[in-house]
Amino acid sequence: ECGQEDIEQEITDGTRIMRFATAAYGIDMIRSALDRSAACEVLQCEKKAIAFHTGIAEKDVKLIHVGEGGSMKVLRHFVAIDRESKSIIIALRGTLSISGALIDMQGMSCDFCHGKAHKGMAEMADNLWNVSSEKILKLFEREEFKDYGFTITGHSLGAGVASLLNIKCHVEELVGTRSVKCFVFAPPPVFCLHEDEERSQNITSSIQKAIADCVCYIHDNDCIPFLSVTFIRRLAYVLDAVDNKTQLMWPLQRFKIFWELQDIPQDIIESVKKTRKENLQRSLVEGESPLVAPARIVVWMIKNVDDNTFTGIGCKPETLRDLNIFVNQDMVTDHLPEQYENALDFLCN
User: Fold this and answer.
1) Per-residue burial over 283-312, b = 16 or more CB atoms within 10 Å of its CB, e = otherwise
2) Which terminus of the chain, N or C, has fewer Cβ atoms within 10 Å?
């Protein structure tokens, strides 16, 4: 819906903030994403590694909750001072444990900030603020940070939780009237408004402001931004349609089609097209809501396979609602934090 020249600022901001989202995973993920050499002692200490990868001073890493293991109650995260943007940043880790996967699976919707949200991630947003808010607010009380804003970021599961924490911050004024910005990388769909609920003008304005202050990023064929109850139901119907057409197909022919050595038979294509149209007309099941990424714009980084370059495009999150999970060989690897860093680095340079 808009070209790369219209999203240059979002690309520039995302290139820098993505390093915070990567750093929330800890030393191993930082090591895999590094594009420059680092001293051994830097990669032996969590605090040093975070500071090195994000380009901030070690003393500005103020709170770390990125120890080993997982938690169903509090997502691993860290809080840091970003003096360049005059902001206190909280970076949330994505799925890297069984506990994280279990949160992802709680995909039915619940009431959240006068809307509907992903149940598992809404609970995590509430829990995370309960744990870290005191330390964050104490930082804001310090004279040197009185003019600082609040930036929330995360990747994958962390991005979904960050999106909801952003809405919570605006609606409940968790940091007062300070500026709140949100940058989310590979977020699943997590929020939508109650269509029939009457809201005060203040609440409506707060939610609109939260959405306006959030930018979403998707790397090429990453499937996670399309993982919701709605998208999974659509995929199940499509797979069923394909299965009905391929039950008697020889394994060798399946292999050739999958690796694009043979064209897909036309009857399969027509069956999928028909199912996709039917999917858009299906009624929602109990607990299902038409969730989206609550952001002003989606920056989609499309890989050009011929020369490994990238093209950035911008679209509205609502545009994604009518799409489907694209099943291909890269749908998982395109989700990795280092892939997001590489794509943003290319577009920024």
Assistant:
1) eeeeebbbbbbbbbbbbbbbbeeeeeebeb
2) C
